[in-house]
Design goal:
mainly alpha; Arc Repressor Mutant, subunit A; three-stranded antiparallel beta sheet; 3 helices; 54% helix
Length: 101
Amino acid sequence: MFLADDKVNDYIQKVDQDIKLRSHLITIVKNYIQNTNQEYAVVQALHGAYVASQPPQPLTIEEMHEILIELSSPLIGYLGRDKGANMNSDRFYFLRYLPIK
């Protein structure tokens, strides 16, 4: 019984961390675009802003790109994406916040 409770609690903590990470990335995109007066942000610039933002966990640029793609999928819709020829030419923009309660 206690083992099952521990596993459930571990899963809940992981999901909570994942949501906080995604919310943080959405805020990074919004703030970067707002502060630079641009319409879009590229992955390299966002990764630099992420590293400087006291991030909730370290991410490689590839890991961050995968999460940005996830957040820009039509089913999720927190970010928009103009797909480029490769990771370095993808451009992301803010659509809406991911509220955390």
